[in-house]
Amino acid sequence: MSAEGPVTGWADPVAAFLRANLPREDESPAGVGWCHLFMSSYEVGCTALIALGEATEEVWGASPRTPPIRPATLPRWDDSAVAVLWLAEQQNQLQWRLPDGSVRPQRAGQFTVQMINAPLPPPPNIAAAHDCHPACASDDVMQVLSALGLIKDGAWTKAAELVLWRCGAQASAVTVETDPRFTAAIDTCIITMPPDIRADLSRFTSITETEIAAERDRCQAQLADWAARYPRNPAQPPPTDEGLRRSLAFRRTNDANWLFFRRWRLPDGWLSPPEAARALEVFHDPLAITMRRAVVERLFPGSDLALAEPFAKSPG
Predict the structure, then answer these.
(1) Cα gap 250→204, rounded to integer Å
(2) CB 282 within 8 A of CB 82
(3) Burial class, 212, CB count within 10 angstroms (exposed 0-12 / middle 13-18 / buried 19+)
(4) Is 134 helix (H, G, I), strand (E, B) or coil?
(5) Could you read off the pLDDT of 29-77 as tens digits, one per residue?
(6) Which end of the chain is least crowded, N or C, by CB within 10 Å?
(7) What own/partner pairs with CB < 8 Å and gap ≥ 24 does 47-51 have?
(8) Which long-range contacts (CB under 8 A, 24 or more apart) does 172-181 make?
(9) Digit-coded pLDDT (tens) for 150-181
C-alpha cells in the first residue's frame, strides 16, 4: 500500500502542486524551469516532477517536458507524498502545531522568540488523528493532501501515519524507535537484507589503516596546494589520525544512509531493483536514518560508524 497508496488519481494534483510551488528558474538554458537551489525539499520536489514525466533533469533543477508524458508506472505514492509535505513546509504553506493546537514556539539558540502584539494565528485546519499532530495548511495544500488520501474530513487519515514519520517529531506523536512496528521492522530488515546491501554495509562500518594513510596523503596534498595558491594565509596544521578517521566515518555514514534512502521503505522492507526504480531519492529521510542506526548498532556494535552521526541537513 505504501507504494501504490490508498487512492488513485493523485498524480495530476501532485504534479500541479509541484509545478506551482517549486522555485522558478527563468534564466535557465531552456528559458524556464524549476531550480532546486541545493535545498533538500526543492531537490526532492524536482526529482518527483521528473519522475512524474513533467520535467527533464538539469544540473540546476528541472526543465519542463513538452508535452508532459506520464510514465506507465508512477513513482511511489509515499515518496511523492513526502515530496509534497516537505515542499509545503518549506514554502510556509504547512505549519505543524502542538498536540493542543497551539503554535510551536520559535527558537533562536537557547531563547524562545515571540513577536510583541502578534496577531492570533489561525487555528489548525487539519485535526490530530492516528498519532499525527494537528497542522495548519493553505487551501492548495489541503487539496493536494486530500487527493493523496492523507486527510479526510479535516483530519489525518490512517494512511498518513507512516508518511508523517518521515517528517520528524514535529509531525508525529510517536516515538519511532520504541514503536512495535519499527522494532519489528528492524528484525525484518536484518533477516531479509540482500547480500549486496549487507556487503556494502559491512564495508562501510570498518575503516582500515590503509584507508587512513590514503586520506592523510590526500589531505596533505590539498594543504600543499592551498599553501602554494595562498602563501599569505597561515599554514594549516596536518590532520591527526583521529581526525582522519572521524572524517572517513562521516562519509561512510552518509554512504550507509544512501543504501536505505534508495532501497528501504517501511513497511515494505527492502525493495527489489524494479521496486527501487520507482522510489524517489528522498535523502535526509529521518525514518531511513533511524533504521540505519538501529541496524548498524545490531549488526556491527562498536563499529567506526558509531563515531559519526549523519550529516545534519534538514528537509529545508
Answers:
(1) 10
(2) yes
(3) middle
(4) coil
(5) 555 799 999 999 999 999 999 999 999 999 999 999 999 999 999 999 9
(6) N
(7) 47/83, 47/280, 47/281, 48/14, 48/18, 48/75, 48/79, 48/80, 48/83, 48/84, 48/280, 49/15, 49/18, 49/19, 49/22, 51/75, 51/80, 51/280
(8) 172/131, 172/132, 172/133, 173/99, 173/128, 173/131, 173/132, 173/133, 174/131, 176/287, 176/290, 177/290, 177/294, 181/266, 181/267
(9) 999 999 999 999 999 999 999 999 999 999 99
Cell of 8: 488513485
- Cα distance between residue 106 and residue 309, in whole Å: 25
| Assigned C-alpha cell, 210 | 590503509
Locate 130 and state its grid cell: 492516528
The residues, ordered by sequence, that sit 6+ positions from 138 with a Cβ below 8 Å of its Cβ are: 88, 93, 94
Is residue 284 within 8 Å of residue 315, measured between CB atoms? yes
Contact 56, 63 (CB under 8 A): yes
Q: How big is the CA angle at 258 (ends 86 and 12), to the nearest 5 degrees?
A: 40
In the chain, beta strands by DSSP E: 34-35, 55-58, 61-64, 94-96, 106-108, 111-113, 135-137, 151-152, 155-156, 264-265, 269-270
Nearest-CA neighbor of 124 among 99, 90, 108, 101?
A: 101
C-alpha cell at 79: 515518496
